[in-house]
Design a protein that fits this description.
single chain; 172 residues; mainly beta; 8-stranded antiparallel beta barrel; 12% helix; signal; Outer membrane protein beta-barrel domain-containing protein
């Protein structure tokens, strides 16, 4: 039995070592001279007016948004996400990026109180990326949680929903 464990451990170690060398990982397309690593800014996502922080790494752009919804009682909300470069269209690293996001999608009235609805989705963005700034226009599709009131009536179904966003950030 000890020989079998040794064999399994050896096979597992060889596979892990091979995985590090394989081309499974995406190719790094962004370099340090393309843009600043950390960027801060503001934007609007649907009805969420927010401040955002962006981290540019060799594989893409990670971001976090925090703000408040413009409708109702200005319920707080936020999102996190990541965008991977897909196709560059010119100088600087301008082009199309694909990504995924999760967080608050919208604000709805449930039992006479505003409630921020959680959800997740994917998006396609056009990013204007330079050393000084990041400007992003994106359209996404996602789905949010099902919202019901105390009586069990459905306020919002879990169904696909478009999300439009614009952000402008400057490097630190």
């Amino acid at each position: 039995m000890k020989k079998v464990y040794s064999l399994v451990a050896c096979i597992a170690l060889c596979n892990v070592a091979y995985a590090e060398e394989s081309s499974f990982f995406p190719k790094a397309k962004l370099t340090g001279e393309d843009t600043k690593t950390w960027n801060v800014g503001a934007g609007i996502t649907q009805k969420l007016l927010h401040l955002n922080a962006e981290w540019v790494n060799p594989y893409g752009i990670a971001y976090a948004k925090a703000g408040a919804f413009l409708n109702g009682d200005h319920e707080p909300g936020g999102q996190i996400g990541f965008r991977l470069p897909y196709h560059f269209t010119g100088k600087d690293k301008n082009g199309y990026y694909i990504g995924a996001y999760a967080g608050h999608l919208e604000s709805k009235v449930v039992d006479q109180k505003e409630k921020a609805r959680l959800g997740a989705g994917v998006d396609l963005a056009y990013v204007l990326l330079s050393r000084e700034r990041i400007s992003t226009f994106s359209v996404g599709i996602g789905a949010g949680e099902k919202l019901e009131d105390r009586a069990g009536r459905v306020i919002a179904e879990t169904e696909p929903k478009l999300q439009f966003s614009y952000t402008l950030s400057v490097g630190l």
